[in-house]
Design goal:
Blueprint (H helix, E strand, L loop, with lengths): L7 H6 L6 H7 L2 H15 L9 H14 L3 H12 L6 H12 L27 H23 L6 H9 L4 H29 L2 H15 L5
Helix pairs in contact: 3-9, 4-5, 4-6, 4-7, 4-9, 6-7, 7-8, 7-9, 9-10
Length: 219
């Protein structure tokens, strides 16, 4: 099995020890430490419960694909392949392509915010992919899509679909934490990459803004 990098965000952002970006992250040492601890708690937990490593990495590869971060998706897909004997990693790219959309969309409860209601596609895993993924993981992909693109539509009925597919209440909490953590991790990595690509005279100005994001290392 591939060993986890000492700092996954540094690895994904291409940050070298002693670099300018490493120094920025060092200014929020606790946030940096908590981000890595969150990764380990979600992907390499001491007590994994009923959500398997295969499911965790499959959901992560899919969600990173929804966020249009192929390098992050491949990072998780590589770890998925360490556990995958069913070809699950092979169907994720096609499902990401099918699920791709713009967001957020969905509907608010009746009231002043309904003027912001936006219709969008209701994603379902294809029958061919479901035959590989199984109903439980297919339901997880569909729920992850809901959380990424139309969280306004989260409802008891949406949770019931997970329960019907074999996810317990505790499993659903873990699934939601995974999707939430990935949104945080991907945004931080994207921001760090943007800083790396920024000319030095602009980097110091952006640094002040970005360190606020790094301070939110808790999931």
């Amino acid at each position: 099995m591939s060993a986890a990098p000492a700092d996954v965000i540094d690895f994904l952002a291409g940050i070298e020890p002693g670099s300018f970006l490493s120094a920025i992250r060092d200014r929020r040492a606790q946030a940096r430490e908590n981000a890595q601890k969150s990764y380990l708690a979600l992907f390499e937990p001491e007590v994994p419960g009923d959500v398997t490593a295969l499911e965790r990495y499959a959901v992560a590869a899919f969600v990173a694909g929804l966020h249009r971060q192929p390098a992050v998706s491949e990072f998780y897909a590589a770890r998925l392949r360490d556990h995958d004997d069913a070809g699950i990693a092979q169907v994720i790219p096609s499902e990401v392509s099918r699920a791709a959309t713009e967001g957020p969309y969905g509907r608010y409860p009746e009231g002043p915010l309904t003027v912001e209601d936006v219709d969008g596609p209701d994603y379902r895993v294809s029958p061919a992919s479901e035959a590989v993924l199984g109903r439980r993981l297919s339901a997880a992909f569909e729920h992850a899509h809901l959380l990424v693109f139309h969280p306004r539509d989260a409802s008891p009925a949406a949770l019931q679909k997970l329960l019907d597919a074999g996810w317990s209440a505790t499993d659903i909490v873990t699934l939601s934490q995974l999707v939430s953590f990935l949104a945080f991790q991907i945004r931080v990595v994207a921001g760090l990459r943007a800083l790396a690509a920024t000319s030095s005279h602009r980097a110091s100005a952006l640094e002040t803004v970005f360190t606020g994001v790094l301070a939110s290392g808790h999931v």
